[in-house]
Design goal:
The structure holds 2 protein chains of 2 kinds.
Chain A (H helix, E strand, L loop, with lengths): L16 H21 L7 H8 L8 H33 L11 H14 L6 H22 L7 H24 L5 H9 L7 H28 L3 H6 L4 H23 L5 H12 L6 H23 L6 H23 L4
Chain B lengths: L6 E10 L2 E11 L4 E6 L5 H8 L7 E6 L2 E2 L5 H5 L2 E4 L11 H7 L13 H13 L15 H14 L4 E5 L7 H18 L2 E5 L3 H7 L2 E6 L2 E6 L1 H4 L2 H8 L2 E6 L6 E6 L6 H8 L1
The chains are: A mainly alpha, B alpha/beta.
Chain lengths: ~350, ~280
């Protein structure tokens, strides 16, 4: 290359991304540790470690290992899944309202999971599989219905909200038809809950985080470039359609499998991205920040719902109460700025 | 860096959906030169550029880069050779200038490769070349139109391609910024031998800055060649349906077009145009 007469500038400063991510990771770990050690009563960190390592006769071994650990692990994994899936959709569609829990992806996974459990009497991985299939089906349906509007305009959002409402009523109907649901179980499928969590439930979610989270990680850089518009992305060597296909597959997989385990925990997917975007202006590391924010929202929301409120409430009620006002705020703001995250 | 990448169109038909805008166009872009594509509104000049840049798939024919169809080339590989600045790229909220220009390095980065010193240097060079190094930490949202356009060009420069295609890079810029952007492209062409292809609205600036002019109209190429061969009164009449006088630009010694309308011209000029 012919040398241009340009002095080399010092390497560019890329401020604070690592710091913010580290702080978020620390916060997530702190919340996780808190839910392991505190509940009705509090245990010291040593006691928690002893209980976890299965030391014979450790104080609180049952509470920590059998009750708190599965709940916290499932909350962590589901929270990360919701956060990643949500921000992936919001970024890809350039609209914070285009989150999977608003446009019906979560609702379809929830309805499919209830259907699989109540009508088909399936459990475990098969429920996850049905949920993912339904999520993908509904994603395709929404895309097809809104295709003429071009991209993620109001059309896609409105169609998604309509589909979401329809699927919620399917869930409600299935719950009424179900022979012996208790109220807690019904709440799980209506608002999302970690009640009665078991480690076996966390397995599919962990697997999906590896598989679909990995796919998302591989596509993250292309997704970043796609934010500059299809033409620019293409000029930079990114195939827009292929990128969208991969991101959709990954995000639907993450959200659907988490939903099949915990129910559609209200607004976590929707809230994580915008909160992360405020912590990390610009976009580098937004994906991972949103995943961590999702985890904090679920873990802390569940803790608040269990112990800090007068009545024990499932996590979805708490996150829903936080999310609804934010939804209103965003709708007002999106009208003003044309839909940036 | 080789300077003689050959970009050509063979029997190209292109357009949108069911509408064919260009019919059977064949052309060759001169390597190492500045080419300007001119034409009226909706004449197909952007369509031509976008098809050359493989954003649009041709309806028939092919766009060839060094003999291979660009529409069948791996996208990333092509992006290392040919850059494009589209007409209206989307500005993501909260992105800084340095970040945006850094995106230009995308085609040079592998899936797991990290940001390298070479990437840093390319970004620095691009910022310097466009005079935007002072803006590196600014949010793109806070910049003026002229600054923003220079930043987008910096992004395309950071891509370090031998061919650079620009779709109306001077639109929305005041005249001083237009000259600045065009001077910048000449610098780039002179310093690195970059082949520049751009769509321009302003015929006089096109004639002044381009080595090679392509006039597009009614679905095909009406004329191409050196500006003094292409920019004639006859051509302006057929392509734009406008009467005009062609004079010599006293500054650049290139042809300049003075339009003749129904008003505000000396009577004999109007009569001459009417005859």
């Amino acid at each position: 290359m012919i040398a241009l007469p340009f002095a080399t500038l010092p390497p560019l400063r890329r401020p604070g991304v690592r710091l913010v991510l580290s702080l978020l990771a620390a916060l997530t770990f702190g919340a996780f540790a808190l839910t392991l050690s505190c509940g009705r009563g509090c245990l010291s960190p040593e006691q928690v470690l002893l209980a976890l390592t299965g030391a014979p006769g450790a104080e609180g071994a049952f509470v920590v290992a059998e009750l708190r650990l599965p709940r916290s692990v499932l909350g962590l994994l589901a929270g990360v899944s919701f956060g990643l899936g949500g921000v992936a959709f919001q970024t890809m569609l350039r609209n914070p309202l285009a989150s999977p829990d608003i446009i019906g992806i979560s609702a379809s996974a929830g309805a499919a999971a209830v259907f699989a459990i109540v009508i088909l009497s399936l459990d475990g991985w098969l429920v996850s599989l049905v949920a993912v299939a339904a999520g993908l089906g509904v994603a395709v349906l929404i895309w097809a219905l809104s295709a003429r509007g071009g991209g993620a305009g109001a059309r896609l959002i409105l169609i998604g909200i309509g589909v979401s409402a329809m699927l919620d009523s399917v869930t409600a109907y299935l719950l009424l038809e179900a022979p012996a649901w208790d109220r807690a179980e019904a709440m799980r499928w209506l608002t999302g809950s970690l009640n009665g969590a078991q480690l076996t439930q966390a397995l599919p979610v962990a697997g999906s985080l590896l598989l679909f989270g990995g796919l998302l990680a591989c596509t993250a850089r292309n997704l970043e470039v796609l934010r500059l518009g299809d033409d620019t992305a293409e000029a930079l060597g990114v195939n827009p359609d292929r990128t969208r296909l991969r991101v959709t597959l990954a995000a639907v997989g993450l959200v659907a499998i988490a939903t099949a385990a915990t129910g559609p925990i209200a607004f976590v997917a929707f809230l994580s991205g915008p909160i992360a975007a405020r912590l990390l202006p610009g976009s580098k590391g937004l994906l991972w920040a949103a995943g961590l924010v999702g985890a904090v929202l679920v873990i802390v929301g569940d803790f608040i719902g269990q112990f800090l409120l007068p009545a024990r409430l499932p996590v979805g009620v708490v996150t829903g109460a936080v999310g609804a006002p934010f939804l209103l705020y965003l709708i007002i703001r999106v009208n003003k700025n044309g839909g940036a995250l | 860096m080789t300077l003689d990448h050959r970009l050509e169109a063979r029997n190209l038909s292109a357009g949108y959906e069911n509408r064919v805008i260009l019919h059977d166009v064949s052309l060759a872009i001169p390597a190492g030169k500045i080419t300007a594509i001119v034409g009226g509104n909706a004449s197909g000049k952007s369509t031509l550029l976008r098809t050359l840049a493989r954003i649009l798939r041709p309806k028939a024919g092919a766009v060839l880069l060094d003999g291979a169809s660009v529409h069948h080339m791996p996208s990333r590989q092509l992006a290392q050779v040919m850059g494009l600045l589209p007409q209206s790229p989307i500005v993501p909220e909260g992105i800084t200038v340095a970040d945006l220009v850094g995106r230009g390095r995308h085609p040079h980065q592998g899936l797991f490769s990290r940001w390298s010193r070479e990437d840093d240097r390319a970004v620095s060079r691009a910022l310097k070349a466009t005079g935007t190094e002072g803006l590196a930490d600014r949010d793109l949202d806070t910049l003026s139109g002229g600054q923003r356009q220079r930043v987008w060009i910096a992004m395309a420069l950071a891509q370090e391609t031998d061919l650079l295609l620009l779709d109306e890079p001077t639109t929305f810029l005041d005249v001083a910024h237009q000259i600045e952007v065009l001077d910048l492209l000449v610098d780039l062409n002179a310093a690195q031998g970059t082949t520049v292809v751009m769509v321009l609205h302003d015929l006089n600036l096109a004639a002044r800055y381009a080595d090679h002019l392509i006039a597009v109209g009614s679905g095909g190429i009406r004329a191409e060649g050196r500006p003094e061969q292409v920019l004639t009164e006859e051509l302006v009449r057929t392509v734009f349906g406008l009467s005009c006088r062609i004079v010599m630009d006293p500054v650049s010694q290139t042809p300049a077009m003075i339009p003749i309308g129904r008003h505000k011209a000396a009577q004999k000029q109007i009569a001459r145009a009417a005859s």
